[in-house]
Amino acid sequence: MKNRIALVGGGRMGGAMLRGWADLADTMDFVVFEPTPSAEIAKLIEQHAWTLNPDPKGLAPFDCVVLGIKPQHFTIVCDQIVHDLVDEQTIMVSIMAGIGTSKIAEMTHVQHVIRAMPNTPGQIGKGITAYWCVPNVPFRGQALAIKLLSPLGRVEKLQHEEQLDAVTAVSGSGPAYVFLLAEAMAAAGEAEGLERGLAERLAWQTVIGAGALLAQSGQSPQALRRAVTSPEGTTAAATEVLTEGGGIFTLVRRAIEAAVLRSRQIGK
Ligand SMILES: NC(=O)c1ccc[n+]([C@@H]2O[C@H](COP(=O)([O-])OP(=O)(O)OC[C@H]3O[C@@H](n4cnc5c(N)ncnc54)[C@H](OP(=O)(O)O)[C@@H]3O)[C@@H](O)[C@H]2O)c1
To which pathway does this protein belong (predicted)? Predict the structure, then answer.
């Protein structure tokens, strides 16, 4: 028998998962709750004869309910949809930032909760998602959740729920730090006399290419950096400025610390 999966919230992240779930259609059936589906998502649901926005009454039980909504919609979604989808066996997978598993269990009336933190490259299947699984979740539930999260990219298991604050700070917010570096490099190029569009293309493509090289070479960032740094050369001159007195390491440490603190505050 096919696993019955409900997705509540088919926006950027939910939609990205749904695209990948097409490969699981032989073993799983999907029902999607999304008030404003994009044309692409509506077409995907129609193509696979999945169900969009049915009356939730009487649909329980689902093997797994995936919450892809924003935290501010959580209460209303529990009342209007989730309570009608679950029984004591249902696995609840949440990607909502800042809402802990005990709160999710209390609000959804489900004991088997998995809380995951993806990041924006997940929208194109190049992200990384770390999850915490409450100890009572049966192994098959965890395996199901990993399959459902995999379309977003790599999936990593955590040892403690508290680690999600550090995950949020490193990989959840991380893409923004890389975009900021691309912005800063382009601005510096412009300041050195390059035309703005050219400076942006040089900086952006450098970030894109460096990421792809890191992905494909199998080498560490340190090894790749050392390989392009000749003694007394231009890269060495720039790296010296970037690392002077701790430099970028100190700054990034402080930035991540601030993000961890904010994540803890939001989660309270
Ligand atoms: N984007 C990221 O990088 C990222 C990273 C980590 C975690 N997250 C978490 O992932 C979650 C989703 O983020 P996202 O970027 O995918 O947000 P999003 O694009 O806004 O998707 C949320 C979707 O939920 C829908 N929704 C609202 N009310 C609903 C209801 N009553 N029933 C069913 N669906 C409803 C929204 O529809 P409307 O547009 O019509 O309101 C929207 O399509 C958030 O909790 C966020 O914290 C996101």
Answer: Amino-acid biosynthesis; L-proline biosynthesis; L-proline from L-glutamate 5-semialdehyde: step 1/1
